[in-house]
Amino acid sequence: MKYDYQIAVIGGGSGGLTVAAGAASFGASVALIERKDELGGDCLHYGCMPSKALIQAASEVQVASEQTELTSNQYDLLFKKAMNKVSEAVADVQSHDSKQRFIDMGVDIYEASAQFADNHTLKIGDRTITAKRIVIATGSSPAVPSIEGIEDVEYLTNESIFSLKERPGHLMVIGGGIIGLELANAMAHLGVKVTVVENSEYLLSKEDIEIAQSAQQILSEHIEFVTEAKVNKVEKSGGQIHVQYQQGNRIEQVEGSHLLVAVGRKPNVGTLELNKAGVQAKSGAIEVDETLRTHQSHIYAVGDCNGSMPFTHVAGMEGKIAVSNAVLGLSRKVSYNKIPWVVYTSPEIYHLGLTEEEANEKYGDQLLTFKTKLKDADRFMAERNKNGLVKVMTTEKGKIVGAHAIGAGAGEWMQEIGTLQALNKKFQTLSNVIHPYPARNNVVSQTADLYWREKLFNSKWNDAIKWYVKKFR
């Protein structure tokens, strides 16, 4: 059968653009289908880029507030400037994902939603195209919980908060995960009163518990946290939004000017009519195997829509694997064991591999855990950024199984450990790397030095070494 395209890509976010660009560069005929006006996906318009622009602008305001007491009017002005910087940053990055760039590659772009007619045929608006292979990269959207009254109030999500023109008086956040905390932290630095209501015992439920507890303690200087609280009802009265929640047997309430819902993401698969293509979903996400194939071997799914890890860099990685498998006929498998992520609060939180709880369960007595507090590292002492911790878990032979940190710039200086793990190097090899003094990543090499202290100086060999030194040196 002759097809209109060798590859059809549904979705113009990080994963979809990676597939489209890669397939076109290999000489495949490519159709790229995107329902929104611009390419780039949620990361560009509602996620990574605007949030990081906001975080940077907010951190600058925080520094200024530490030097002088800002008035309410000054905070209002700085808030507007911060939101303008967000718009400028998105516009700058948009040029990298411009439609013309992909058109110049030979990609045909369709500006409409897509639905399957069968496993090789897509309906795009009033048109129909066929493709030999199809990659679904439709991303995700904010999940809105079933709460009484939620549809009757004007709530914010990460898709709408960046459109604010005026500084909120009191922002209430439902959800203490990555998105909720990053935005709560930024708003607090911009002079907004912030209350975060979280259902779980701890914030950041996927993080190492010690790191999460440290984050809550540090961030509570600017943010009010209500944990183990189930939100039952939301209503608007007297110009304020009222959030009713239950803690144990007590019913409590908090009220504020704005409400942000940040309880997670849901895959965008509802309008695809997957059943007509024989593609199966589980818990709302498209099921894929280790090669990112669906139940139809010529249809792949990458990024948030497959329910793996909801990060832009993961979607890009999956896109590269899908390209090699779909275009070149390989069977490369995806692995998530060595993928780090960062929570861009202030201070930042770095996550790689297993948490200490998970590692203890898997390795038991074979696990070694090394910790260094930032207050014991010279650079952080000099900068007066002493709140924080580095934690690395290894096997007895030094294989890295997990690494976590909280501290200023942790997303940058901790990636050295991620690089070691990706190269299958032992943690102790970091002790042989010379770091310029007093660079922040000296705290990482300090932590690596603890391996030798554990394995050498606290071992049975220590007595033999002492005897040798005393006798012969």
Could you explain the architecture of this structure?
The chain has 473 residues and is α/β, with parallel strands linked by helices. Helices cover 34% and strands 24% of the residues. It contains 14 helices and 23 strands. The strands form six sheets. Strands 1, 2, 3, 4, 5, 6 and 18 form a seven-stranded mixed β-sheet that branches. A hairpin with a 2-residue loop joins strand 4 and strand 5. Helix 1 runs parallel beside helix 8. The longest helix is centred in the first third of the chain and has 23 residues. The radius of gyration is 25 Å and the shape is globular. The chain starts with a strand and ends with a helix. The mean pLDDT is 94.
